[in-house]
Predict the structure.
Amino acid sequence: MSKSSVISGFYKLSPKERLAIVKNFANLTVEEANLLQESCSLPMYVTDHMIENVIGVFPEPMGIGVNFLINGKDYLIPMATEEPSVIAAASYAAKMVRDGGGFYTSSTTPVMTGQIQVVKLKEANRAKEQVLAAKAEILKNANDQDPVLNSFGGGAKDLDARVIETSMGQMLIVHLYVDCRDAMGANAVNTMTEAVAPVIEQLTGGHVYLRIISNLATKRLVKAWCRVPKEGLGGEAVVDGIAYASAFAAADPYRAATHNKGVMNGIIAVVLATGNDHRAIEAGAHAYAALNGQYTSISKWTKNDNGDLEGSIEMPMAVGLIGGAVKTHPIARIALKILNVKSSNEFGEVLAAVGLAQNLGALRALASEGIQRGHMALHARNIAVIAGAKDGQIDVVAELLVKERRVRVDRAKEILENLNKK
Ligand code: NAD
């Protein structure tokens, strides 16, 4: 029987009780569950091999987004973030979307673009023709680098070349299109671009400098869309407010930056939890948002004929289930087990749905009571901790701060002093 991601009162449980539910949902082993809470750290022999000059670890809280129904399948979403209210907002939004049938998604094949920069050419356009004529030879050379990727049906599939005008004259930019299957693909693509560079130099007589992947992954796109019944949002006025907010973000880069930041709050939390490269995802998302010359929003919301809300998102999504730190980071491995995705395409589509949910959570609050009420309620607990509150005191101090609408450290300290006098 498939398990539901709707877990009533999940937020009210203790971390131990929540973990027991997730352990059951995702069939985690006792060791995996222990790693999340008991040992709660990364072994030094692992970290010392991951990066340079290691002195320790930087822990971040990991929580679970609930209520996600995507293409009819229930998901628990592991999210690592330092920001309060992100996971609550995503879970709340996923519940509203669920009432409209859940999220639907699609994606392209997982093709990444490698760039080879050729300079010092006598005739750039002639060099372009020479490269295009040698396509088969260049692709074969690229594919010789990665028999493993080929064995999974991936590899260099196509190439393109264009001449660009720059401040240092004309350059020929060759694009190598590589199907990366279940890898993010940067190492794989970089190896291929470096390998074909001498062939391209020989063909064109030019000099190759840069040979590297592009993070503007326009050939590796994911889409998600959903319908949200107006009743769940609080009526048609809120639907209108969200549609106006969407039109604002589409037209104004100052608003679009914050709109997209809201989308990325959710996506990056999952990308981080799964050990993927979040800089690559951020770079790709924002470059894609500016692809038509003006920076704009990567999601859209409109009101349909019934007065309900409809939303959609489209963005590049270079994430992997293998490679990089994904397999070496023990917590990332557990996060991916919880997520239970079978391919990088399914993973990317889930991320698109999470981004859309996160965006909806923020826009609903913005279009109705404002973002501060929910945000400050959670932020008040941080302020209470900063002021020195411990265990049972944290909620008492936070509640009073919110009630008084004075979520400030000085006030938290006063409340604590009074509590300690009692
Ligand atoms: P990787 O090289 O560790 O793993 C990819 C390789 O795994 C493939 O080349 C293939 O040989 C093998 N493989 C095994 N099973 C596979 C399957 N089912 N599907 C696909 N490949 C399979 O990692 P990667 O994904 O090529 O690179 C990711 C890393 O590169 C990340 O750590 C990222 O931070 C880093 N990086 C990023 C950039 C950038 O984004 N600009 C630049 C350099 C490096």
The two ends are 53 Å apart (CA to CA). Strands lie at 62-70, 73-80, 104-107, 111-119, 155-166, 169-179, 207-214, 221-228, 299-303, 309-316.
